[in-house]
Design brief:
By secondary structure, the chain is of the alpha+beta class. It folds into 2 domains: about 290 residues, Aminopeptidase, CATH 3.40.630.10; about 120 residues, Alpha-Beta Plaits, CATH 3.30.70.360. It is built from 9 helices and 18 strands. The strands form 5 sheets. The chain has an 8-stranded mixed beta sheet, sandwiched between helices. The longest helix is centred in the N-terminal third of the chain and has 23 residues. The N terminus is likely disordered. Bound molecules: zinc ion (2 copies). One zinc ion binds next to loops. It comes from Leeuwenhoekiella polynyae. InterPro entries: Amidohydrolase (IPR017439), Bact_exopeptidase_dim_dom (IPR036264), Peptidase_M20 (IPR002933), Peptidase_M20_dimer (IPR011650). Its cofactor is Mn(2+).
Length: about 425
């Protein structure tokens, strides 16, 4: 059975919370704004690639220690985890910021523009915070300071998770959220809930965008290996044609989306991005290979699509006299916002940003490794506006002209701080 993704969360149980944000937290965030922006500029000017975030991690660790927060370094290679115990007992909330930059050469003319270069997969490249993770680092450093200074208000424990390699570890290395979890980031003390945000270059400053349920896609890479039997191109009856089988399988895959997936629940995508096989015009080759990606937003649909792709590959190859295997590699799970948690925390988002500045958005087919935490504990991941007010267009993430307006950071600090307090202090 498919889950019904009702919009029941829109009727909110707001009674537990005041309608305006905590004035002391608001004032503290506003007083810290210039410092947060300064941190952001520094991190932006000194970006580091995935699993190589040594200096970034050192700056974070130094700051957390200065606040009296218990710090563990070298978690999942370059990750930093801080534990802040509130003055009162209670639950454990984790706040996550990803800290890595990308092999992109910055084309902006900012005073804090990155001039950093590095070697990536054997090639010299510029390095840039072209996904905005510099803002995530600065926002969480600011949030840590505010919460540390308000320990007396906290019923429970806050874990600050500064995570490397969200963009993916270099080939042959482990990294990111999956490795943090493997190394026990959600244990001791055991995390009850996790919050995370992503700055967005095309959402106006001051706006929060969110979606309950599947928010960003599970990303799978797949490889289909088709085995035929080689023969002369003029005598196909003498062999088994893997190219023809490849065509049947590609066609079959698209029927899984168009005929078998309930697209009213969520969209889904199968893309064959590479097809290879054969050597010349008059040889039917022995093998062919398909490589592609699957994007899903609903756990049941994900299972169905993967199962059916496996059956299609094996079954169709067999029907045409050959054989095939398919392998899937998971790059991210579904960034799935727990429905009850989203309902619980929506009033906080609204009172911090203002009712009119919290937008319900559609899912995206991009992926986020925050999803791995959400497979373990209920989590909420939302988007924070980073586009200069008045602009209607923005350069996309991962491009050399990508820009985030500093004015977007303050709302991030306020929201992360208030989410933490409201979650931990809920009756
Ligand atoms: Zn990115
Ligand atoms: Zn990102």
């Amino acid at each position: 059975m498919k889950k019904l993704h009702t919009l029941a969360f829109l009727t909110i149980g707001a009674a537990a919370f005041a309608q305006t944000p905590d004035p002391e937290i608001t004032a503290a965030a506003e007083a810290l704004e210039d410092q947060v922006i300064e941190w952001r500029h520094d991190i932006h000017e000194h970006p580091e690639l995935s699993n190589r975030e040594f200096e970034t991690a050192a700056k974070i660790a130094k700051h957390l220690k200065s606040l009296g927060i218990e710090v563990e370094t070298e978690v999942a290679k370059t990750g930093v985890v801080g534990v802040l115990k509130g003055d009162h007992p209670g639950k454990v909330v984790a706040l996550r910021a990803d800290i890595d930059a990308l092999p992109v050469t910055e084309r902006n003319n900012l005073p804090f523009k990155s001039e950093v270069t590095a070697t990536f997969m054997g090639e010299e490249t510029g390095v840039m915070h072209a996904c905005g993770h510099d803002t995530h680092v600065a926002i969480l450093m600011g949030t840590a300071q505010i919460l540390a200074e308000n320990k007396d208000k906290i019923h429970g424990t806050v874990k600050f998770v500064f995570q490397p390699a969200e963009e993916g570890a270099p080939p042959g290395e482990e990294g990111g959220a999956a490795l943090m979890i493997k190394e026990g980031v959600l244990k001791n003390p055991d995390v009850d809930t996790i919050f995370g945000l992503h700055i967005n270059s095309a959402t106006p400053v001051g706006t929060i965008a969110y979606k309950p349920g599947g928010t960003m896609a599970a990303v799978e890479r797949f490889v289909v290996k088709i085995q035929g039997k080689q023969t002369h191109g003029s005598q196909p009856w003498g062999g088994v044609d893997p190219i023809y089988i490849a065509a049947k399988i590609i066609d079959g895959f698209q029927s899984i989306i168009s005929r078998e997936s309930n697209l009213l629940v969520e969209p889904a995508v199968i893309t064959v991005g590479k097809i290879s096989g054969g050597v010349r015009f008059n040889i039917i080759p022995e093998t062919a290979e398909l490589i592609g990606t699957v994007r899903t937003l609903d756990p049941d649909m994900r299972e169905l699509i993967i199962d059916r792709m496996t059956e299609m590959s094996e079954g169709l190859a067999k029907a045409y006299g050959g054989s095939a295997t398919i392998e899937f590699q998971s790059n991210t799970a579904i960034t799935y916002n727990d429905l009850a948690l989203t309902e619980q925390m929506l009033p906080t988002l609204k009172r911090v940003a203002g009712e009119d500045h919290v937008k319900l958005v559609k899912a995206t087919t991009g992926g986020e490794d925050f999803s791995y935490y959400q497979e373990e504990v209920p989590g909420l991941f939302f988007f924070l506006g980073g586009m200069t007010p008045g602009n209607t267009e923005a350069y996309p993430h991962h491009t050399p002209d990508f820009q985030i307006d500093d004015d977007g950071l303050l709302l991030g600090v306020k929201t992360m701080s208030q989410l933490t307090l409201d979650y931990l202090n809920a009756k």
